[in-house]
Amino acid sequence: MSSKQTPPASAADPAPVGPVPRRLTAAAAVTALQGLALAGLGLYILVMGLVGDPDSARQAETGGLTLLALAALPLVAARGLRLRRRWSRGPALITQLMALPVAWTFFHAGGVAMTAGAVALAVAAVAVFVLLLHPEATEALGIAPAAGDAPLPKK
Predict the structure, then answer these.
(1) CA angle, 114 then 61 then 79, to 5°
(2) N or C: more exposed end of the chain, with fewer CB within 10 A?
(3) Cα 82–84–89 angle (5° rounding)?
């Protein structure tokens, strides 16, 4: 390696110094709540599949385990956002992309509770998108702006 080349950044690099911006904290909190909700629903379905009287115990157990596995994505992403890890924005945004069709399905399922849940899920997903795509959040995560973009003004 020549003296002009720099070694590539690794995942083990220390987190940026300074306070975590409020946008990242809020995005991490909402993403963590989504992960906890998925984990809770997965546990409920799994327990009901084991001790309840489902139509298909195997299907209930598989669904519960699937939701528990899916809950790992937003929970890991939330932790990464809180620690200001650059890789965490991708999984957090993917979680929101997966949440929008679920909200759409809930909305069309009918009923007041399903509609309220759909609206809450959609609002949370859009809020996290806005929070994570804001230039202040991308800068805090160490994601450089595209070439030609004006830098953020210093406060």
Answers:
(1) 70
(2) C
(3) 90
Distant-in-sequence, close-in-space partners of 85: CB < 8 Å, separation ≥ 6: 11, 15, 141
Query: Does an H or E element contain 18, and which?
Result: none
Query: What 3 state SS string does 45-97 have?
Result: HHHHHHHCCCCCHHHHHHHHHHHHHHHHHHHHHHHHHHCCCHHHHHHHHHHHH
Residue 101, class by beta-carbon neighbours within 10 Å (0-12 exposed, 13-18 middle, 19+ buried)? exposed
The predicted model scores a pTM of 0.80
Q: In sequence order, what are the residues at sequence separation of 6 or more whose Cβ sits closer than 8 angstroms to the Cβ of residue 118?
A: 103, 104, 105, 106, 107, 109
Residues 6+ apart with CB under 8 A from 84: 15, 16, 20, 24, 140, 141, 142
Mean pLDDT of 132-148: 82
- Rounded CA-CA distance 54/116 in Å is 26
Do the beta carbons of residue 98 and residue 124 sit within 8 Å? no
Q: Which is more confident, 48 or 150? A: 48
Quick one: pLDDT band at residue 53, thresholds 50, 70, 90?
confident
